[in-house]
Amino acid sequence: MYDVAIIGAGVTGCSIARELSRYNLKTILIEKDNDVANGTTKANSAIIHAGYDPVPGTLKAKLNVAGNAMFDKITEELDVPFKRVGTLVVAFCEEEMEEVRRLYEQGVDYNVPDIQVLDKEALLEMEPNLSDEVVGALYAPSGGIIGPWELAIALAENAVDNGVELKLNAEVKDIKKLDEGYEIVTASGNVKTKYVINAAGLYSDKIHNMVSTPTFEIIPTRGEYHLFDKSEGDKVSRVIFQAPSKISKGVVVLPTIHGNLLVGPNAEAIEDRQGIETTREALDFVAKQGSKSVKELNFGNVITSFAGLRSKTPENDFIIEESADAKNFINVAAIDSPGLSAAPAIAEYTVEILKELMGELEENKDFNPIRRPHINFIELSDEEKAELIKKDPRYGRVICRCESITEGEIVDIIHRSVGATTVDGIKRRARAGMGRCQGGFCAPRVMEIIARELNKDITEVVKDRNGSYILTGPTKEN
User: Is the dihedral of CA 180, 347, 370, 40 positive or negative?
Assistant: First the structure.
């Protein structure tokens, strides 16, 4: 029997798994898909929010600022790309400036560091490509950008390296209450555990309802984005928000951690928990709103558009608590924005709840917070490149020309403790296929490498989730 079972391997579940690996517990992380970070985590704005805007008294307000402060240490330990580029909330009229000043006062109350209100002149000096219609802004230098799936993958890898078991392709079908603990019925075998942490994202209400009367309902909320080629990446150097409305922080324009430009999202409540298709209407709206903030956005340089889903409730706050009628069952649900920013603090908060239930936990003296770095070949000096190629010639073979990703990098990430097994798994870890051609040239070679390294037939290699086959057989015989 396991001590703790975590359901859901998004950034929240992976953060909790890594935090629990600090203790001598038998912990398992259960995920319905064939990889971690395959849901909300892989399709969001990738912003580490400063923390000035959550409603006072909420968990979001408590955990956003706390989580933000933890990212320098965590990303250094886990070798995850992260930059504190700062965030701006721009106003286009005096009424919106009143909202900016309110957010400033709230940010001061929340101890958000070094925030300030800028007038138009100071704002345009900082970001000259903003619209001439701006009148001022709130500036929060502690805001940042990150690779969200890279963070979740690194958290999972470090957790596994420190003793956590990862169970993929294990959709939860049912949960049975036992005299002591629970039996989780999954698509790939049952798991008995004393404690359950429900971090199932869009499905967290469904998971909770397996052991309890319904107490909350998740409302899937879709957001759609335009991702631009790196030629547009210098249009802004900071995250550009618009003064927020009651339902959304508005369409954002921001640089990505890898030098692209991202514009989005909208916010649309839908019923389909897998409804990640894009719509012309929504993408046109995102383009129009993004162009309100930044002049001369060239949408001819969009390399892909995509949609992501967030887990919202009408109460608009995180749910992190033991279920009222299911002992030792902890819900970590409704983790929408700023969930990514708060993830490290959510993990600590959840473990504190677990300690209240279990008693003081024995520390894992062998816990190692440092993840083995991933080699970014393109960032090495010429001397370092030559030395690495001498040791392993595969680093001299470029597979993805857009991003200059080598065969050596791809092989390395396949054989890590939470290694890539799919084309998109490679894409998220090593960026092969992230460039302007979006895998048009490198995908066949990536598939060949996956098949070779995992001893699979190439027709078994999928794009992303199970069933997303690319090849089914030859079109003609030789």
Answer: positive
Q: What are 26-73's pLDDT values in tens digits? A: 999 999 999 999 999 999 999 999 999 999 999 999 999 999 999 999
Phi, psi at residue 276, to the nearest 5°? -100, 20
The secondary element (H helix, E strand) that includes residue 384 is: helix 382-391
Residues known to be catalytic: 49
Please write the tens of the pLDDT for every residue from 275-329: 999 999 999 999 999 999 999 999 999 999 999 999 999 999 999 999 999 999 9
SS3 assignment, position 92 = coil
Q: Is residue 248 pLDDT above 70, yes or no?
A: no
- Write out the two tokens for 126: 């900082």
CATH class for the region spanning 87-141+219-309: alpha beta
CA-based nearest residue to 17, from 78, 72, 58, 60: 78
Q: By CB neighbour count within 10 A (0-12 exposed, 13-18 middle, 19+ buried), where does 237 fall?
A: middle
Pick one of 3.90.1010.10, 1.50.10.100, 3.50.50.60, 3.40.50.300 as the CATH number of 1-81+143-218+313-373.
3.50.50.60
Collect all residues with Cβ–Cβ distance below 8 Å to 240 and sequence separation of at least 6: 87, 88, 90, 127, 130, 252, 253, 254, 293, 294
